[in-house]
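Page 42, continued from yesterday. The earlier attempt failed because a stray header line got pasted into the input along with the sequence. Redoing it now with the clean sequence only.
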Amino acid sequence: MRKKILSAALAGIMALSLAGCGGGNSGSEGGNQAASGKDAGGTLTVAIWDNGQKAGLEKIMADYTAATGNKAELQVITWNEYWTLLEAGASGGDMPDVFWMHSNEARKYMENDILMDLTDRIAGSEKLEMDKFPQDIKEMYTCDGKTYAIPKDVDTIALWYNKTMFDEAGIAYPDESWTWDDFYDAAVKLTKEDGSQYGVAMNPSNEQDGWMNIIYSMGGKVLTDDKKASGFDDPNTIKAMEYVQKLVDNAMPPATVMAETGTDVLLGSGKIAMLSQGSWMLPAFKEHEYISQNCDIAVLPKDAETGNRVSLYNGLGWAVNAKTKNPEAAWQLVEWFGTKDAQLKQAQLGVTMAAYEGVSDEWKNSTDLFNLQPYLDMRENIVFRPATRATLTWWNPMCNTFKEAWNGNMAMNDACLKVAEDMNKAISEE
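This time it went through. Structure tokens are written below.
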């Protein structure tokens, strides 16, 4: 990969960020600070990919600066550019001092000494209570008995629906009694023949926030329990994906439209009546005039046969550049993010649900625009986002294969079997 310097590349990509831009100092400027972590004129650079969380996190970082004297500046980078920059930095360029880590990428970064080993610092911390974080998320950021990130949040999936469209169609709002059959029937009824409105939208890339929840609800699986093989050849998985194909055929915009226009944009422009979406979208949706005036939230439907409603969940981690020139200040910041007080403030500000046990009830009360309780209710039956040692070696090809089914170029059953074959090969080579 061609190497890039973070500070040089940021100027060119900031305009491409999710909805705005972050601040401007490069990661190398943190080197001006003393090893003690006390500010000596430098500034920690903190990188994230979600502009919707920027304002709230900056308030938490301001608390950190007031308490420690260490300055930190947040930079928002689009998802694809984010990983390009981290990979370039890992290859010899500059990296931010502190940044988000994701389950898709964690193993690669932990195994290659790119992230600071936080194990001893965590053990010596008087501020952290690691037993208050979900075990799945802690394990995701642990490698060979060492911990490389502090849990940031948890997320669940719920159903957004357009009340105005339901009212106009004379359909009762979705509730906990809904099955996926009810969902399908409503989606078809809410789809207009002239193409001005569709019941739902879902791309192959809407995995965690879309069709994977249906798989687990219907008794299927993406991975076997031992994570050594694909679950896409499981009959229940195939059944679930064939149900998704019915939605694609009868209640969704053309695949080409969804590929070009994000499903959140379709919801916000009044083109779709329903959208399953992650709790991480709250900051953006509550600032969106159309969504805030027309939409609300329900739990995901359950399967009529299994009786199960299932939400995938995931959690980001706060990680530190192993080569930061300001290790103490960087550690103090991720430690700060992981404290109960900071996690509580994250929830209260509506940034996102917090990883710390018991504080997300405050997130529910962060806005009166929507009923956020369904996101908390979805925690009753959750499955951790499927991952293996090298997730992306099979994840991206999986999405590409399902694009063929979405576009009508391959039967969904055949797509599932191909995904299973490709996954099994990739997993065997990890």
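Notes: The first helix runs from residue 6 to 13.
Reminder to self: strip header lines before submitting.
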